[in-house]
Specification:
Elements lengths: L18 H12 L1 H12 L6 H24 L1 E4 L3 E6 L5 E6 L5 E6 L1 H6 L1 E7 L8 E7 H13 L16 E5 L2 H11 L1 H16 L2 H22 L3 H31 L3 E5 L2 E6 L4 E7 L3 E8 L1 H6 L2 E7 L3 H6 L5 E6 L1 H11 L11 E2 L10 H18 L9 H15 L1 E4 L3 E6 L4 E7 L3 E7 L2 H6 L1 E8 L9 E6 H17 L5
Antiparallel strand pairs: 1-2, 2-3, 4-5, 4-10, 5-6, 7-8, 8-9, 9-10, 11-12, 11-17, 12-13, 14-15, 15-16, 16-17, 18-19, 19-20
């Protein structure tokens, strides 16, 4: 190589000059409740108010100093095939992270990030619970460039034989009508409302919350009694109010879906999948295709009404991102069944989907699925009879529905195994399909409960490398002989295959 062409040693770089501000913001979010409590209880005591304010000010100053020191001591260097990170205030740490070992990349931008033109970059390897590097924050172009280097597997310029690189291809986008359908199907406002009510109930003393509910209830019933409505107008008024609440929840759900999934785009480049979404907070998640351990198709009753499905994936070592909602889990939050099937065939070339035939399971002992409902309904009936007399027997009406649902669930269970993959289906009211390649399996377990011994059945559980999706990769209600035959077949396949993860 010509000496003039020898690459210079890459220099160390700092984070963005405003990174200490975002670090301080993160610390304030973690300690927000203790600080508010300190200020609140301090203000209740007027005679000795100033010590509480001094303590609060000292805590905030300490956080600001820590954030500033972290910015001053954080360095990173982009090498040819690895990222070097030096950090620490009192205890200095140096980490070498090969690009080939980084599997999950997340570029996160909230409103404050977008105002300053910066982004937070998180890099995860197969280590598990913590990110290998969390850069809070970089200039947006720096974050995207580093993501590109990781996607290409290093900072070296591509060889001439490798040119040209394939441009990122868009696999799925969600226009506004699809976001409206997603909001109607998901009903996210109900979850948000329940969480808000629970949080408010925990924040205020119990007697205050109970008094508020009691007083509001008395006012509502008092107002209703003053109207002196007949039975039919009263029923119509209540129905109109319920309809208004339902419409409000739907509108809120649609708004939440638009905020969360606006500009959704699934793309693929260099065998990495990238999802971009978000209206106020933009999230860009990237993962190598080989990290995907299992695929899940879901559809509920509303999905079938709108002729839509959802495609989700399990990714190895996605634990830390799973907790804060940044993991790439949804490849298709909402799409037609044909589009979901087409995506599966694209990601799993050579794997037949959907299977031509599903193998049924044993129907013996199907009623086992309604045993939990039997115990719950029995307890509810006893309590209802003690409190309301014979009216408490109405809870027994749930048992026929529970038995019917259990029978339908078992009758729809099925599996399909071929030389490339194993597929499992289940559910009835809410249906699901799970697919995993045989190269991703690392363990097979056969279980038999006392009821399995009685009915001559068994359960076969399949374990993939690091994935913990729901529902589990589990074949239930198999005939004992068939379960052992399948276990031997899968073990032989696993023994002759190389684990890919």
């Amino acid at each position: 190589m010509n000496p003039s062409q020898t690459p210079a040693t890459p220099r160390e770089q700092r984070l963005h000059p405003w990174s200490w501000l975002f670090e301080l913001q993160q610390q304030l979010r973690q300690f927000l409740l203790p600080l508010v409590a300190l200020l609140f209880f301090g203000s209740r005591r007027q005679d000795s108010e100033w010590p509480f304010h001094l303590v609060t000010l000292a805590v905030i100053l300490a956080m600001a100093a820590t954030a500033l020191l972290q910015y001053l001591t954080y360095r990173y260097r982009i090498g040819e095939d690895a990222l070097t990170v030096r950090s620490g205030i009192l205890e200095r740490t140096r980490r070498e992270i090969p690009f080939a070992r980084i599997h999950n990349v997340v570029v996160h931008q909230n409103l404050l990030h977008r105002l300053f033109g910066v982004a937070e970059l998180r890099l995860e390897s197969a280590a598990g619970d913590k990110p290998e590097a969390q850069m809070r924050v970089l200039r947006l172009e720096q974050a995207l460039e580093l993501e590109r280097l990781i996607r290409q597997g290093g900072g070296r310029a591509p060889a001439a034989a490798e040119e040209p690189k394939a441009a990122p291809g868009s696999l799925l986008e969600l226009p506004l009508p699809e976001l409206v359908r997603l909001g109607l199907i998901s009903n996210r406002a109900l979850v948000v409302a329940a969480a808000a009510i629970g949080a408010l109930w925990q924040m205020f003393p119990r007697d205050v919350a109970e008094d508020f509910v009691r007083d509001q209830g008395r006012q509502v019933f008092g107002y209703a009694s003053q109207l002196q409505l007949d039975t039919l107008p009263l029923i119509g008024t209540v129905a109109a109010l319920l309809l208004l609440v339902l419409l409000s929840m739907w509108l809120m759900s649609i708004a939440l879906a638009i905020v969360q999934y606006h500009g959704f785009r699934l793309s693929e480049a260099e065998r990495r999948l990238t999802v971009e979404r978000g209206l106020l907070t933009r999230l860009r998640s990237s993962v190598a295709r080989r990290r995907i351990q299992a695929w899940t198709l879901r559809e509920g009753m509303l999905h079938r009404l709108f002729r839509r499905r959802q495609l989700r994936v399990d990714i190895a070592a996605g634990g830390s991102q799973e907790q804060d909602g940044r993991a790439l889990k949804e490849l298709a939050p909402l799409a037609t069944p044909d589009a979901c099937d087409e995506l599966l065939r694209h990601f799993l070339p050579g794997v037949p989907w959907p299977p031509a035939q599903w193998q049924a399971v044993s129907m013996r002992g199907w009623w086992r699925l309604c045993l939990p409902a039997l115990f719950v309904v029995s307890a509810a009936t006893l309590l209802g009879c003690r409190g309301f007399g014979a009216w408490g027997l109405l809870s027994l009406l749930w048992l026929p529905w529970s038995a019917f649902k259990a029978h339908r669930r078992v009758s729809r269970m099925g599996y399909s195994i071929d030389p490339r993959r194993v597929a499992i289906r289940g559910g009835w009211w809410s249906r699901w399909w799970r697919v995993a390649e045989l190269d991703k399996l690392q363990a097979v377990r056969l279980d038999r409960s006392p009821l399995d011994h009685h009915f001559g059945t068994a359960t076969l559980t399949l374990d993939t490398a690091g994935a913990a999706g729901s529902p589990a990769l589990r074949l239930r209600f198999l005939e004992q002989a068939r379960a052992r035959e399948l276990m031997d077949q899968l073990v032989r396949e696993m023994a002759r295959r190389r684990l890919r993860w």
